[in-house]
Specification:
By secondary structure, the protein is α+β, with helices and mostly antiparallel strands. It contains eight helices and eleven strands. The strands form three sheets. Strands 1-8-3-6 form a four-stranded antiparallel sheet. The two termini are 21 Å apart. Pfam families: cNMP_binding (PF00027).
């Protein structure tokens, strides 16, 4: 993506000599949880994920972001430390905004409005995911995920670990759901794909999750 095409170009153009363009390969860590890191990144292309790894080896997927989004250790801004890793899930190109430059940008109310809108929207999305995990069963959420992300009744996935990351569950927990769906003849599972056999049963099972995720066409919106 060309710099003059990004959402924040008009705000950063006078500081371009202070902002680095950096690249990471797929699988590289942009920052680790134990690093003191105060820069802010803006994604030009590619995808990253933010995850938390416990001392017991459990991985919790916090967020996934792509181009035109900010990423960084924003918890520092709220005097917190969430101890998260930021990792490239594809080849990624980023703007690296030093804290001193970011402090200057905060003086521009229009930039600050965009930054706060984008980051608060992600926080709301993460909060909604956490609510779903507490409100609905894994079976309900998995049925919804299959229906939403399938094409011609076929859902493809990279591997089981990637699915476990999405739902922040163990392989055993996911296999229990898959085996249940197979036994009930809802789905047929192949190596890296799932074929939906009984869409109506999945649709009924996901009913409350669908209602929870229904887009609200309210006229009250941020004007950004």
């Amino acid at each position: 993506m060309k710099l003059d095409h990004i959402h924040i170009y008009e705000y950063i153009q006078e500081y371009l000599n202070e902002i680095a363009v950096i690249n990471y390969k797929k699988g590289q860590y942009i920052t680790r949880s134990d690093e003191t890191f105060t820069e802010v990144f803006f994604i030009l292309s590619g995808n990253v994920k933010v995850e938390c790894l416990t001392e017991y080896g459990k991985v919790f997927l916090v967020d996934e972001l792509s181009e035109n989004e900010f990423v960084g250790k924003f918890s520092y801004m709220y005097e917190q430390s969430l101890l998260c890793d930021i990792k490239a899930t594809s080849d990624v190109c980023l703007l690296k905004i030093h804290k001193d430059t970011f402090n200057k940008l905060q003086g521009n109310s229009d930039f600050l409005k965009v930054f706060l809108f984008k980051t608060s929207k992600r926080i709301y999305y993460m909060y909604k995911k956490l609510m779903m995990k507490n409100l609905f069963s894994l079976e309900e959420m998995f049925a919804f995920h299959l229906l939403k992300n399938s094409e011609n009744d076929r859902f493809e996935f990279k591997n089981i670990s990637a699915l476990c990351d999405i739902f922040s569950i163990s392989r055993k927990g996911l296999y229990n759901v898959l085996n249940t769906f197979v036994k009930k003849n809802y789905i047929k599972k192949d190596k890296n794909s799932i074929t939906i056999i009984d869409k109506k049963q999945l649709f009924d099972l996901a009913m409350h999750v669908r209602a929870f995720n229904r887009i609200n066409d309210s006229k009250i919106k941020f004007n950004i």
